[in-house]
Amino acid sequence: MVKDLQVDRAFDAYQDFVLGCKLVWTRELFPALRARYDDELTHRRQAGEPAPTDAASVAAVLVDDPLNRYFGWFERHLQRMKYSGRHGLAPHFAAQRAQLAADLQAGGESGLLTLDPDFEQPDYYVAVDIHQHPGGVWSDEVAGYVYERGARTTTPLLREDADLHHRFTREVLSRAAGARRLVDLGCGFGKSTRPFYNQHRDLEVTGIELSAPCLKLAARTATEDQARNVQFRQADAAATGLDAAGYDVVTSTMLLHEMPPGHIEQTLQEAYRLLAPGGLSIHLDFRTDDDPFRRFIHYGHSARNNEPFMPPLNEMDLEGAHRRAGFEAIETLPFEEMDGTLAPGFTAWRFPWTMIIARKPA
Amino acid sequence: MTRARAAGLAARVTLHRKKDRHMDTPGNLAEGQPEQTFFTDPALDRAVAMIMTLAAELHVVKDRLRALEVMLAQRHVLEGGALDSYVPDATERARLETERTAYVRELMRCVLGAQASKGAPADLAQRFG
After folding, report:
1. Mutate which of A67, A86, A124, A128 to disrupt the B interface (most B C-beta within 10 Å)?
2. pTM > 0.80
């Protein structure tokens, strides 16, 4: 976790307030909405009316429900407040611009970072400010800090926000015994990369990312960690420029849902190219099943949180895309981001965490 | 990356140079796009936004007041709990009541929906036209 350069009591109080509201939304409003919908299903069944079959028909059922309206309002606006409110992340870090630029120098001089001064961002990437992060995660020199601070509460119930990444690191390496070289695609500011290079100093790790501000923060963090087994490189996950067949593992965390399906196909092809025979491809992302209510919630999140490619990812034939890239042994498995979230009695809102696993033929 | 591979990738997406966009202004509006609405009347969306903005600011102020109280107690300017047990004298009570009466009247009279000054009748322009 990046330490704030200066304490700002008003900022901390404001962000705690917003998070507090989000926790109520997560733990109480969502279960109440689910119960409201289940009541509606019961009434429909008793009246001999058909149950909704997809996200759109669930939306039609709930369109006039006040709880549904407030549920959507709060998801949209608590995120807006978090990033753009008076004490939001964007103005908070913009006010520290000079100090942060100096703070990032250490990363730039570490030898752990390769930036492309002529790099051009893909059109789909700059077309929307994902997560309602004004300017996106790429366009402002302090964007990495904004993203890092914001990501601490992406999953509100997680007290230790890094725990999710440690769990996924264990999953990856339990399936890749003896791995020596790993690529983390779409590594951002290094949150998903850090458990790999920090806890496995014999593993050579390469982080690939579009955003220069995020990469600078990733390199700074790795410099503080005194890590020498990681390199960060500015490149497109679909065209990394890395050597073919040289890696044992290609992974990503929360990358695929930020891309259109065509780019996902190219990224899978690139992953195949990078892997040595027998190598492991493993992505952690969001895929929900056919339950209409879960799709309604997931697709609603997509619209409210400026993440337009979630529904296309959910509906594409991802297994087929892997097969076309040459992969075999393709599995899709639910991922438990913290203890108990996959248990039947768990009622709070959560992302539909999913691992997509495949192998390059030996 | 080979030139051919880059050309192929570029053919499939349009590439943009980095834009110089800053986040310095709180609540900076993104290119005039209308915000999403969740209620039948979008005025309600905006009213709820004002309520939540006020609620957040109230929390910030309460937090600051609490910090002030703690620091004053630590510096022995105030005894701990002094604010909780403060009883205003008669003069201060009268002042507080005057202020409170004016405040709640201002707040509650909004629901009357009455004009505070004499508005023009609909036919005024015609009468003097």
Report:
1. A86
2. yes
